[in-house]
């Protein structure tokens, strides 16, 4: 397998068997990859604090901390959300396969390792991970700082910007965020409902968007500065009033007139009047065109 770009693929191999490491490392280096070696779980966690590999090959059974616990600990780091972890072990019974997948692994290779098959599996998972990261980076570029949590407030995934704004799940500060989100999400929230959220010494707000598949709460992270900058940019570019720029910003965020009225504490009739002026100043005929114009501008901020 060859790397897909000029940067070498970085692989972290976590295994306590020297012979196994040597065989796998030779195959990976021959394929043009950079190999990081950890002989046990704690070493892998130490490496992960400074380097984020593209893929992890994880031995399931190791002394001190097994591969399943190591995988769970790695996945607490938001930087590892999309990093594929492939388990390697001589055990192939259903119990251990399930344990590996539940811990956050994406695949399972049985020892003795067939390196040709392993490289092919890595190629598939690396391609999927890169597409996922590209999609989430695109959301950030479009100003859609999204993330998802489960009903206990555990972070399932987030765009790069969100991951930079929130502490690692293992950090004590995230325990406070988890408790806050859990209590908030226990209510029957309507889309568009917002709540203040303090994270990393910055005052944010979080907006509830939807419940996906009955288990993922889709949220948007906002900061007052971001929202203020966005409305100011819209106001200056399109010569809008403050209220017109507020309405246009929420139109760009997909809100209905009724939702905008609730957010801005005005009547739906007033929202319509502002929209008429927005359409005239932007030279468009409908909200879809107005939203598209706003999104294009906001993407450049």
Automatic annotation (TrEMBL):
Pfam family, one: Response_reg
InterPro entries, A to Z: Sig_transdc_resp-reg_receiver (IPR001789), Tscrpt_reg_LuxR_C (IPR000792), WalR-like (IPR039420)
Entry-linked SMART domains: HTH_LUXR, REC
Domain of life: Bacteria
Domain HTH luxR-type: 233-298
Annotated positions of the 4-aspartylphosphate modification: 59
Record bears the keyword Transferase: no
Keywords linked to the UniProt accession: DNA-binding, Phosphoprotein
Response regulatory domain segment(s): 10-126
Protein name: Response regulator
Organism from which the protein derives: Marinobacter salexigens
Lineage summary: Bacteria, Pseudomonadati, Pseudomonadota, Gammaproteobacteria, Pseudomonadales
């Amino acid at each position: 397998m060859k790397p897909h770009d000029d940067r070498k693929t970085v692989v972290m191999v976590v295994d306590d068997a020297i012979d196994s490491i040597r065989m796998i490392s030779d195959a990976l280096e021959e394929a043009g990859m950079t190999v990081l070696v950890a002989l046990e779980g704690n070493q892998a966690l130490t490496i992960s604090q400074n380097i984020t590999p593209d893929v992890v090959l994880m031995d399931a059974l190791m002394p001190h901390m097994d591969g399943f616990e190591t995988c769970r600990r790695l996945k607490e780091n938001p930087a590892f959300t999309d990093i594929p972890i492939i388990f390697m072990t001589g055990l192939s019974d259903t119990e251990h396969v399930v344990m590996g997948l539940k811990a956050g692994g994406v695949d399972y290779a049985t020892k003795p390792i067939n390196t040709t098959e392993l490289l092919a599996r890595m190629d598939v998972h690396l391609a999927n991970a890169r597409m996922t990261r590209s999609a989430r980076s695109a959301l950030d570029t479009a100003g859609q700082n999204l993330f998802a949590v489960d009903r206990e407030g555990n972070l399932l995934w987030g765009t790069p910007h969100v991951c930079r704004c929130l502490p690692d799940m293992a950090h004590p500060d995230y325990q406070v965020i988890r408790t806050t989100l859990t209590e908030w999400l226990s209510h029957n929230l309507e889309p568009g409902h917002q709540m203040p959220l303090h994270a990393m010494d910055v005052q944010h707000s979080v907006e509830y968007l939807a419940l996906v598949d009955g288990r993922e709460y889709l949220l948007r992270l906002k900061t007052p500065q971001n929202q203020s900058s966005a409305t100011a940019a819209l106001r200056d570019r399109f010569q809008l009033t403050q209220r017109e720029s507020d309405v246009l910003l929420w139109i760009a965020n997909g809100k209905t007139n009724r939702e905008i009225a609730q957010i801005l504490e005005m009547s739906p009739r007033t929202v319509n009047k502002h929209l008429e002026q927005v359409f005239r100043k932007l030279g468009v005929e409908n909200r879809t065109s107005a939203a598209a114009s706003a999104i294009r501008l906001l993407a450049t901020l």
